[in-house]
Amino acid sequence: MSDITTNLTELVYTTSTSLDIELTSNIQSDIGWFSLSFTFMITYVSFAASSNNMVANRGHLARAGVIGVLLAILAAFGTCAVGIDFVNIVGVMPFLVLGVGVDTMFVVMSEWAEHYDETSVEDQMGATLEKCGGSISIASLTDIIAFLIGVTSQFISIRNFCAYTAVALFFSFLWDLTFFMGCLAVHGQRVRARRCCMTCLVVPDRFRKWKSPERREEDESLCEKVPQLLLKISMSDAAVLTVKIVIILLFTGYVGASVWGIYNLQQGLVLNNLVNDQSYFRLFEDWNREYYKTVLPISLVFQDLDFSKDRDVNAMYEVFDTFQTDSHITNNSLICWYEEFKKSMLFNDTTHEVFVTNLKDFMFYAPSLSNDVTFTSDGSDILASRCHFITGDIPDSTDQGNLMLHVRELAAESDLNVFPYSAPFIYFEQYVMVLPSTLQTMGIAVACMFVITILFMPHPIMVTLVTLNMFSILAGILGFLYYWDLSLSSITMIHLIMSVGFSVDFSVHVCHGFISSESETRNQKARDAIRVAAAPILNGGITSLLGICMLVGSESYIFRSFFKIMVLVIIFGLAHSMLLLPVILSLVGPKLGQADEKTTDFIKSVPPTIQNGHSKMPSEDKNTYYLNHAYDN
């Protein structure tokens, strides 16, 4: 058909498989963006972790972290291929998992830099995981559980996507705890031995600037120092009151805009949005909407009818009358094989056997009706038959969903075994189910996030703040779908499920940093939380943005909508965790509680020779000891 051209007319066409073919073609043509996005991500990660100190340089460590995430993605594809069908939406999963994995990597590296006072790599590793293990576990588990809940969705595409993503996130978390931690230990041994990051040879004494870091500032790159500096200035004593007022006013406006967006948010999905602008299917749909009414054929499928009995035939005509008089159906639009058969000379309903025999002869002369009757395998009986009606003009997706429910109710009023069907019903199902399904799935996910937060962060104020933060971010994402010109559909529903887990991630790191701070005032504890969490959160967010930035030019609606929602998730997550949450914590955050004081006193009471389960060398012998024994077994 695509090869037919004339100088007088322009031909457009579609088939029952056109949408699937075009959608698959779009996804496959955009797969190349993944390699380009991966290149951007690994370049930024390498830059953000690098420094001019060839001993402390963490570039290789950062690249190892990205490789670990890629291994997790491959493991997920291999595992899910055993019994879970690949659907087109799974194409966005690698971008998602890369962002989560890189964020975890930055958090671990940031915490690692806090513990250079430890006398061994083992002690430093133990102290690092003791401090950040809880936050990265919460972040990973909330993401995994959010997608596992998505597996319960009524939509197959959503179930399969969530299954692939949950498995990938699980492997990413597993790789972080094994592969990346192993690379971190090797990195720590190399650094303490003053070995060059490129050659792994001991650096000569004349390169005094290339040395093992002794405090956090000596291990940080420019990308880690700048956000801390800016936030410290904004949270200084001189500016803190003004900054707090401005932030609260901004977020008040944000909440108002979100509520307005939610109020105006539309439901449904325009099918031609799923294909690219050059697609023949899109042109067909555009012309069809512009020049023709949106009318639908409704088929009534009958089973277990005996057409030789007046009772069954009269009941069938009662169903016809019900549909003919309905306001949604065009008058006199009935198209039925039975009506045509009655007009023929072959019609005979004296017995059921004669009726069936003559009907088969009639179908030989009326091939256009042959698809409306299905006979049993031996041809002795009618298995099912169908008749058709035409609806009125129904262009709105919400009205289309309501129409589907309405004709089902009309059919259910009859005692006959009859059900209505139309090919577009497969799309109308999501118009009806997407809102309750989205609310149900997100509600369960939020409840699970709440339980996980209680288990890993057992402080009522912190649990409350993380939960409120999550609701605020989710409200913003839902509301700003309206401003992004997106509607609530099965496609955006997937992204909303994804955002439930992400809305917790950034907040958890800041709250954990606040609780871990040993400062006495709330303002100082908030500054400490920013100092520890700002750089990894911001760099993780920037890395995720770089990973999806190439999708802005994608021809696929799935990829473009994923890009738009991910931008909202990242920006709102960063804004809440780095601006709003520190302000709230500085006002109502918990002070050091009795339980925390006991824990602190207990840790301080442990002799230094056995803290973290390892012996400690005297500080004056530390450098010499690691220079000689860093790579000992």
From TrEMBL:
Any GO CC annotation of this UniProt entry: membrane
Entry keyword Isomerase: no
Domain SSD: 30-186
UniProt keyword list: Glycoprotein, Membrane, Transmembrane, Transmembrane helix
Keyword Magnesium: no
Family assignment from sequence similarity: Belongs to the patched family.
This protein's name: SSD domain-containing protein
UniProt organism field: Lottia gigantea (Giant owl limpet)
